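RNA polymerase II C-terminal domain phosphatase-like
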Amino acid sequence: MLTGKQNVFDFRMHGLSSDLRGELTRSYGPDQAQRVAEPDSICTGVGARVDSKTSYEKTTFLSPDARRALASSRSSLPLLHHSSVSDRTIQCSRMSLAAESPLQSSSSSEDFAALLDAELELASSDTSPNEEEAENDDENDLQEPRTKRRKVEDFESLEDIETPMMVETNQEHIGTSGVVKNDICPPHPGFFKGLCMRCGQLEEDDGSGVAFGYIHKDLKLGTREIERLRGADHKKLLHEKKLVLILDLDHTLLNSTRLADISSEEEYLLRQVESMKDDPDRSLFKLDSMHMLTKLRPFVHNFLKEASSIFEMYVYTMAERSYAMEIVKLLDPGKVYFDSKVITQADCTQRHQKGLDVVLGAESIVVILDDTEAVWHRHKENLIQMERYHFFASSCRQFGFGAKSLSELMKDERESDGALATILNVLKQAHQMFFDPVLGPDSSSRDVRQVLKGIRHEILQGCKIVFSRVFPSKSPAQDQPIWKMAERLGATCCTEVDPSVTHVVSMDTGTQKSRWALQNEKFLVSPYWIEATNFLWQRQKEDDFPISNLRSRNA
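Structure:
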């Protein structure tokens, strides 16, 4: 048995969310709301009780199942007990996540986490060491006029229902024989610590559902409940004129290195990080507990501040959670941008892959920023691939770059026109086009993936490109990544030159096609021109991407 403090959820006013406090105050008035919020007045589970002066109709801030449970306690209905469920977990799940109540209309994962903190507090608390004493106390309480909770009775032994108000409420769940029918599940909306949050049944090991451990430990939601939450989230965000932004960490917003991997040319950073430790505007940090240095990408704080006004933001990294949380403290010390929305390697449902199945946001409004395209195999249309931020030498070595790193060169990206500043403009453009007033007030059927596709396709519109010795001649040109990249940017690609060709992309000025470009005053550029255009979402100056190989060869 649970102790007196454990047999109810802690719904005191000071522990409630602002939304729930407001709902209580509107329903009861400020004085009565405080009393209703006390554990003696409002509980959860089938054995819950509403104060005798409290109107059943005024409990509309609770889910329908919870209202039935609250009302049923007024008729002294004993708790239901299934033999396969322990006393400790009886009916803690009767407040259904699936119910359509004001509490559950909020769709962000912070609100959802807050809801779960309230609804699941009983299930998540440890068993009291004084269980036997508490059980005796509960039995003694049965003799009191205002019983907090009846002792758990056998599943078959229901008392008659005498309260008129309860006849209709419980009719759908109680048969003529007096046996309660569990017709509210399946489907189960979700599970907490292996128990259904609605009916309390044990979870079957059938592999269904998706774990949302980053929202609440040991939480798993069913497919139907995920769809419901996504639908509510979609509606809420569109009303707020916001989209969803998924942010990778390493090489996208920052770069980290182990202290042991610092090169001799980077040792000045160790002195620098110590001298700057009290500077609120610093971008270099030493993570002592992890023996690492972390360099934030220029403009990252401004980026997060401006993006947060038009996006609900998640962190999604393949790193371990301990590292991710340390980094999030640097990016969002006030928990303004992410709060609980930090998804890490342990949350992924597929090995070496990231997926939106663990994001409570509709795919049609999700934009992803990540430096690695391969991990988003299922969601490439949502992806804006970022140019990798290689500040440390170890990062360059990791990806096989022979050039010196930014730290070794004592340089960095410019804040004004670096990667994050440039992509922020793209995000603002996508947001503006998605919510364009000309399209009308109803944005529910729009898809940000189509918006991104349209923006991208305009970048190289009007360019006709021929490739010369950029990829093996025997390989199908149309299957080459750089060919596909150019087409996504709006360019027309072909295999032979003609007067309509505007660009020749080559690695060698001596090929026949390269010479043709020079003779006919066409642009002759290296493949990096296309890659830079792709990363920066704007056509780059051709003169900045000359061909470095000057050897003459015949095509």
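The chain has a mean pLDDT of 77.
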